[in-house]
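Worked example

This section walks through a single chain of length 329. The input is the sequence exactly as stored; nothing has been trimmed or padded.
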Amino acid sequence: MSKTEPDAHADLPLPCLADYVAERAPTTPEGGMLAHRLDGLDDIAGERVPEGLPPIVDAHVHVFPDQVMEKLWAWFEDYGWPIRYRMSAPRVVDFLLSRGVSHVVGLAYAHRPGMADALNAYMAAVAGKNPRVTGLATVLPGEEGATEILEAGFDMGLRGVKLHAHVQCVAADDGRMDDLYALCSERDLPIVFHAGREPKSPAYKCDPWALCSAGRVERVLRRFPKLKLVVPHLGADELSAYRMLLGHYDNLWLDTTMAIAGYLPGGGELPLASYRPERLIYGSDFPNLPYAWDRELRIARDAGLDAATLEAFLGGNARALFGIADADS
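Given that input, the structure is written out below as tokens.
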């Protein structure tokens, strides 16, 4: 079997997953977490990273050209939540780094054919100006020349891929993904794929509950054992299922973006200490936040993690996954 060939055991589910694959938090509103627009929080933001924390890599920061970001914010204002931090990509980076974040991983996603090349070039330019920024590429799965678009992005120095099932209307196990998975496996570069069902909104053009499940992700993990796959938001809302997958698969990571803030309705709760420590990654979703930028950092500080686990979660795991140097000045 070549290094990019899918595993022959493609459809052999773990028996223990069956109890969790249909999980949905009982308090999730009918229609999803974003059945109705949510209110923002008036919590107080700190001036700096909380004292006593190790060097932090924020592995989930949105970096878009201004005109795209404005349209994204308009959608959130109508259907999601109020955006507390409205600022251009250079200011996004400066804001976090000036407050003590050590390194930023920039993410963007294409929502229609033909825009990925421009987004990738923009991301490469932002990352090229600052060694403390690592940029990821994007592509719309199924668009013409998708594999070549990603190859070009990687050749510009981008260090992985960002995809979003809800926005791009593609399931993790869709056949259009196979060539992209194979390329990332060959290049040893990760995919950050919003493949969890939540937060669902009726405003999406497709139904995330129909597209997304831990079972679909598990099929990908088995078929592409060399693929490095990151599922954001702890896999909300199938928290138990993704936590269990994390214990079974060495090619899966979870980021905590917005999942530990106590903000999203029906999100449930699992202690961070119960997760596989070397596969847990911190991310903020900055600047698209309805609460203080350091809210989840303060929660992480107080989560009762030992020093080694906290260092890995807040920085070390992301550095290893994305190939980030140990020291940032």
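What to look for: The longest strand covers residues 57-62.
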